[in-house]
Amino acid sequence: MISFICPVCKKELTDSGSLYRCGNGHCFDKSKFGYVNLLQSQKSSAKRHGDDRLMIRARRDFLDAGCYRFLLDAVCEICEKYLPDGGNVLDAGCGECYYSAGIKRHFTNCGKELFCTGIDISKDALEFASKRKSGISLAVASLFDLPFADESFDMLLNIFSPEAYGEFHRVLKKGGYLLRIIPLEKHLLGLKAAIYDKPYLNDVPDTDIAGFRCLETRQIKADLKLETNETIQNLFKMTPYYYKTGIDDQNKINKLEFLETQAEFEIRIYEKE
Which domains does the chain have, with CATH numbers? Predict the structure, then answer.
């Protein structure tokens, strides 16, 4: 299990049950949900950080319904290929921990041990993550100032979250792995066609990342057939499209009882050089 470090002085934090304390006496209380807030609020003027409860609840319900289970299964297979028994994984931008909890459960079912840590900038996301009871250590923190010592992790998950490659490189062990998932050009094109008069394709970033060597890429695709308005609404509200549309476009989704759309991802595996 990897220890958090103090965001003030960078010394290791010790878990004493109700709080974390470093050797210099800096203390950080655990919330009633079990996560610790290591985000230094003076570094940001925002009153709220990260995804809001509407997006998190919609994403949790959509994912827990199994709609992206095919993607989770592919991620578990890749993690089993690259991770050692007893390995340490950081889910950077973990949200409600659907993927990291699923990976941990997969390793347990295979008779293997895996230590997982999740960080997210959203307190609401970590509240939902804690309710999974998956044994993942959780902290509110920024991807751009990760509260971990250098070369701590065997693998870092970067799943639909911002990139902070300098910090990712720092906290990964030499030869450690970065698992990144990105949407492909036509991902959710059917949903966008239901919203916009002129649906657009996604931009797909290049594979090159300084300090990392790309080992493999896998494209994972499925046609989703969503047969209730509730499921369609959950998909819509877990995406940025909900927040970028007006009432008229939102009403288009309110009336749908069936939606067919593509779900297209690329999993990219990198090794730290």
Answer: 1-30 (no CATH), 31-36+50-272 (3.40.50.150)
